[in-house]
Design a protein that fits this description.
Layout (H helix, E strand, L loop, with lengths): L4 H38 L19 H26 L7 H18 L18 H28 L6 H26 L4 H25 L9
Helix pairs in contact: 1-2, 1-6, 2-3, 3-4, 4-5, 5-6
Keywords: Membrane, Transmembrane, Transmembrane helix
Protein name: DUF998 domain-containing protein
InterPro entries: DUF998
Length: 228
């Protein structure tokens, strides 16, 4: 088979677009992690040990966390598209990107539907439930579920490759970590424990996995499509 100059140019353009989309998977998680850690450490009256990162949407400077959610979500959506282009075919090539796309959408939803005050932050604010607060919580719950599912789907794909056994176990461990952090987040919150810390462990673990996945895919040769 021969590949025309036009086809070679299309392949090159497709490869560049794919790499840019995959790069979003490294940028988005890093952005989210840095923002929640910096804001959590510098916001007056905010205790990152106990209070969820969502509460950073409230009070003075809340727009920064709202923007963080929306921008991170958009970058993760772009990564999901790049992942679909990169995987092309095979086990997990459809549902892996779909689940990560849902994961990205939950960030955008969390930014649009601002959380309700909980655990005494902001100080003096009413903790009454609102529609947008309930929708925010639903987005947060779907966030943990979609990412855990994506980990298990992509681990199943990688399990067929013996050379990627260590990565497969890392992916499974990440899925279990995310699921466990979700459960313990609710338990510790109900017991007035370190809910913020538990949540951040899950967030940082998941963000690290996505960023490393993006970097790993960017470093591998892009399969060429033969065109007559």
């Amino acid at each position: 088979m021969k590949i025309s100059t036009h086809s070679a140019g299309s392949q090159s353009a497709r490869s560049v677009v794919m790499q840019l989309l995959l790069a979003c998977g490294a940028i988005g998680p890093l952005l989210n992690t840095v923002v929640i850690l910096v804001l959590g450490a510098t916001r007056p009256g905010y205790n990152p040990w106990r209070i969820p990162d969502s509460n950073l949407e409230l009070g003075v400077g809340g727009w920064m966390q709202i923007s963080n959610y929306i921008v991170t979500g958009a970058l993760l959506l772009a990564f999901a598209i790049g992942l679909r282009l990169r995987l092309c075919t095979g086990r997990g090539s459809t549902w892996g990107p779909i689940l990560l796309g849902i994961y990205g959408l939950t960030f955008i939803g969390a930014g649009i539907f601002v959380t309700d005050p909980v655990l005494g932050y902001p100080p003096g604010a009413s903790s009454a439930l609102t529609v947008h607060g309930i929708l925010h919580d639903l987005c947060g719950q779907l966030q943990f579920i979609s990412l855990s599912a994506a980990c298990f789907v992509l681990a199943r794909r990688d399990a067929a490759d013996l050379a990627r056994r260590s990565w497969t176990w890392y992916t499974v461990a990440t899925g279990l970590l995310v699921a466990a952090s979700d459960v313990f987040f609710f338990l510790t919150g109900a017991l007035n424990g370190p809910a913020g810390l538990i949540e951040r462990i899950g967030i940082i673990g998941s963000c690290s996995w996505i960023a490393l996945l993006a970097v790993h895919l960017m470093s591998r040769p892009v399969p060429r499509v033969s065109v007559e």
